[in-house]
Amino acid sequence: MSITEKTRTDLEFHLVLDQVKTHALSDLGIAEIQNIHPFSDVSLCVHSLKKVAEYVSSFENQNRIPNHSFYDVNKVIHLLGIENTFVEPKALIEVSANIQMLKDLAKFLKKFKDLYPVLQEVSKRIPIADDIREFINSKITKYAEVSDKASPVLQEIRVGISKISGQIGISFNRALKRYQNLGYLDAIKESVVEGKRVLAVQAMHRKKVSGSLLGSSKTGSIVFVAPQATLKYQRELQGLEYEEREEIIKILKDLTDSLRPFRDALIRYQDYLVSLDVTAAKAKYAVEIQAVLPKITTSKRIYLREAFHPVLWLQNNEKNIPTIPQNIELNEQQQIIVISGPNAGGKSIALKTIGLLQVMLQSGLLIPVHEKSELSFFRTILTDIGDNQSIENQLSTYSYRLKNMRYFLRRCDDKTLFLIDEFGTGSDPELGGALAEVFLEEFYNKKAFGVITTHYANLKALADELEFATNANMQFDKRSYKPLFELVTGQAGSSFTFEVARQNGIPYSLINKAKKRVSRSKIRLDKTISNLQTERNKLQRKTLSLDKEQDIANEKTQELTNKQKRIQSKLEEFQVLYDSNKKMLQYGREINDLLNKYFQTNNKKQLNTDFLKWVQAERIKYTKKNPPKKRTKKQKEVKKNQNIKQQQKLKQTEKEVLHAVKKVREQKKKEAVISLNKKSTYTYKVGDTVRLIDGRAQGTIERIEGNNLLINYGIFTAKTEKDKIELVKAVK
Question: What are phi and psi of 282, to 5 degrees?
Fold first, then answer.
């Protein structure tokens, strides 16, 4: 597909991208959005559109896609490509965090693959090297520091540093206490110079304090001295810190060398996260402009229903101004549309809306249209919009447009969409109009799809003459002389030249003079067009009203049909129930007759014979109504195998159940033994709540007499032996 930078500029596609990139989470995502251009492969474009549509759906359900802000690891990727370099701990933690995010996203998308099949399919193709993350985390802490356990040498060095630091603290505190007692220190006692604790010594006592002078106050009244006792430990500490740095660098180099084989994987991870950021930004923008994915058709067609210009729609919303949607269709029987009408009536906006939405769709962006809209893809989109006077090349507007037409004629074919604003202007109306007419015929013969705006009557007439071309006009209110910004196809529009002039305050006398200078036939034609347009508006309003009434009637008809279906279904259910009950009553009467006969004769043999005859007769009736289906030998074999498998499964289940029951019984036996042991060892006390082993009534022990107990049940008392009762609740 060939959609040039000029076309994207003419349609102000960059303004859309500026709005999309405000939704990106990363600088890399913003840069990628800035470089969005139409896809050259249709399948890739459709795939991208489906991803965006799935992401939009996540805003509407409870399983929203998790946050996927990520770190830019381009510097890490660059260093991994250079030998004998190492990556800093902070950057390694960022790599680990990105991998963890990929892992979480993959898990989420796998869980909800029915909701996000396309996004899950993309995620599934990214093999996540979780070993990298675990390896990094084993060496680097979450605070972006090399772990003590990264190597035995580093651990030993850090233990030494800890000990020396402790010695420095002890020796310094000892010197501080000593010189403070001698009265050599200033009121602040100590300070920090070059990262080291120092004594704040009064300048007059400097020579009395042994140590290294590291500085003085601005006034010179205080000197800062590192005590001699700590200097030795400081030198040891510096040596250990140097060794620590060397060991850390060694560990980081080893770690970086281990990551080098995964450099391509890291590139792939970052590309995926950037792509997902772009998809998310497109989805958020789609929600903002209420965009959808229209039907993508393989037949050559543009059907835009309730289409909005996205940039204009957002601007109008900010100002609380309504935006009029457009409805337009291009197909094999209507391949070129010529839009006419007054200036400032919205012709150019309608033209740009068509082109911009097509470019957006072919760039993988959802568009603000009704969901029943349909679009196909074009290999080439050509535009000639706006004042294209070229100062740099010293070309007039008309010369520039002629160069454009030459380019159009060379590139136009049956897979082209062309959009031309104010076609034929810039030259003598008659001569320029004639040339524009020839160009339009050439585009038509090449079966290109196109939309043009014009005021030229000859182009309007040509659109009526060509079989697969049509006129369209921007609606204009004749009473208020204000544009309605609504596109209607099927009829050319009047320019409303004199009406617009009158609305803008031009004196009637001047307008009448102008009318006298125009041929009478021209005025009559324009007036006729204007009147036809008015009548068409009335007819359209009536048609819309009739359509609404028809829709209401259809809805009521459908509602009645649904009710009728529900009633019919209920009747069928009642009939089945009635037949079933009737059958049961009949069976009941038959059995009742057999029983009465038996009660009179008391003949069991006769009862059995009559009953079997009755059952056999009913079976014959049932068989006639429901004849058995004959099975082939193969079907019988399959059924037999199924029965065998079912029996085997039942036997296996039976074994498992018996085994489980056996275990439960053994457990109950153990519990019974334990309970018995507890009972045999328990010493009953007055006040314990007990009950008979084979009874439910509970009572309280009132008196104990050797092996016998007197139990009070409230209403009565009973005497029993200890081994015949069990404890319910011990007295506190």
Answer: -60, -40
Within 219-332, residue ranges assigned H as helices are 228-259, 263-288, 310-318
Mean pLDDT within 466-479: 80
Cβ 458 vs Cβ 433: under 8 Å: yes
**Matching CATH number, 682-729, of 3.10.20.30, 3.10.450.590, 2.30.30.140, 3.10.129.10:** 2.30.30.140
Q: What pLDDT, on the 0 to 100 scale, is given for residue 430?
A: 67
Beta bridge partners, 395, equal: 390
Distances (CA, A) of 336 to 331, 446, 447, 471: 9, 11, 9, 9
Burial class (CB in 10 A: 0-12, 13-18, 19+), 630: exposed
- Check: CB of residue 211 under 8 Å from CB of residue 226: yes
pLDDT value at residue 335: 94
Q: What does the domain layout of the chain look like in residue ranges?
A: 21-148+258-290, 160-238, 296-496, 682-729
Architecture of domain 296-496: 3-Layer(aba) Sandwich (3.40)
Percentage of residues in the chain having pLDDT higher than 90: 34
Instruction: Give the C-alpha separation, 228 to 172, whole Å.
Output: 9
- Quick one: which H or E segment has residue 222? strand 222-227
Residue 367 and residue 294 in contact, taking contact as beta carbons nearer than 8 Å: yes
Name which residue leads in pLDDT, 55 or 550. Answer: 55
As given in the structure block, the two tokens for residue 118 are: 């396309």
pLDDT digits (tens, 9 = 90+) for 108-140: 999 999 999 999 999 999 988 888 888 899 889
- The per-residue pLDDT for range 438-454, each reduced to its tens digit, is 889 999 999 999 999 88
Residue 100, φ and ψ in degrees, nearest 5: -60, -40
> Directed axis angle between helix 89-111 and helix 117-124, to 10°?
140
- Does the global pTM surpass 0.85? no
Q: Residue 275, Cα to own-chain centre: how many angstroms?
A: 13
Specify the CATH class of 21-148+258-290 in words: mainly alpha
Return the C-alpha torsion angle 235, 238, 242, 247, nearest 10.
100
Q: What is the mean pLDDT of the chain?
A: 83
